[in-house]
Design goal:
With about 300 residues, this protein is α/β, with parallel strands linked by helices. It contains eleven helices and eleven strands. Strands 6, 7, 8, 9, 10 and 11 form a six-stranded mixed sheet that branches. Strands 1-4-5 form a three-stranded parallel sheet, with helices on both faces.
Length: about 300
């Protein structure tokens, strides 16, 4: 029961942060005064419900008329766009008022989320941003959808060049463990998590790479047996409270024999680069992670 309760809580945190956006209340009426009559006939009216999607569309040069309500800084190009509410629960009436030709969302918020758009007769597309391959496919798909193939190929080449440069590096055998921290709970990140995927690309050795899901529960005996040399902590939702939760967990006697704890090799990752879903900060994230993994 305790695990199911924890899993349910983690799922809600994942849903909150997959869009890389923390909600900050209702949409401001100031931004909602968009003049839809200004839209030229035949012009696309695009709404993005996540920060990551907004950033991709901006990078491709696609005009975005609706954006999520968020505390994160959005691109300059969307400063006059209408806020459409939280990434998890966008305001369908505001979206419909924009008469969008398409709403672009992430596909990880569940079937009920997708059905909401269908039931409201809102044209929508859902993209996969769970890992770097999904990010690349999303860039390619949106490039084709909005006739921005040249720009999409330019972005993809930069990312693929980065991956090639990492492929040529000598692999690091140092054992790494990923901790997912949420207020009041801690779980282990596998290669299915975004940070785990980045560790894999960098040639890192994640001691709990396998798993049926992005985050799993592992007993202390298995952790002691794995004995990681470095622990990478990803924090989502209330970072200060989360950091306190993780610190309290690692201060327990059971962790004292772990090399990473003994040698002060517990690294708290910046959630701006190491979020729940893949985003255009991936190259900077790979650089940061490379420095962490290959630092002796």
């Amino acid at each position: 029961r305790e695990f199911m309760k924890l899993k349910k809580y983690i799922t809600s945190i994942v849903m909150m942060t997959l869009s890389l956006a923390l909600t900050v209340g209702c949409s401001s009426s100031e931004n909602n005064d968009i003049q839809t009559s200004e839209v030229k006939q035949g012009e696309e009216v695009v709404v993005a419900t996540s920060v990551a999607v907004t950033e991709i569309l901006d990078k491709l040069g696609v005009k975005v008329s609706g954006v999520p309500t968020t505390s994160y800084e959005l691109p300059e190009s969307v400063k006059n766009a209408t806020e459409v509410g939280s990434p998890m629960n966008p305001d369908m009436e505001i979206i419909k008022s924009l008469n969008p030709t398409v709403v672009v969302s992430v596909d990880t918020l569940g079937e009920d989320y997708k059905k909401t758009f269908t039931q409201n007769n809102i044209p929508s597309e859902f993209v996969n941003l769970t890992n770097v391959d999904g990010l690349k496919e999303t860039i390619k798909t949106l490039g084709e959808r909005f006739d921005k193939n040249d720009k999409a190929n330019e972005i993809l080449k930069e990312l693929e060049d980065k991956e090639v440069s990492l492929d040529n590096k000598e692999k690091n055998d140092e054992k790494v463990m990923i901790l997912f921290g949420a207020p009041g709970s801690v779980m282990i990140g596998t290669d299915k998590s975004y940070t785990g995927n980045l560790v894999q690309i960098c040639g890192g050795n994640n001691v709990f790479s396998e798993g049926n899901s992005s985050y799993i529960q592992v007993n202390m005996e298995e952790i002691i047996k794995a004995n990681p040399d470095k622990i990478l902590v990803t924090m989502h939702a209330l970072p200060e409270e989360t950091k306190k939760t993780v610190a309290e967990e690692l201060a327990k006697d059971s962790w004292k024999s772990i090399n990473a704890v003994k040698n002060n090799k517990v690294i708290y990752l910046d959630s701006e680069y190491f979020g729940m879903s893949a985003n255009l900060k991936v190259i900077e994230a790979l650089d940061l992670l490379g420095d962490i993994l290959y630092e002796q």
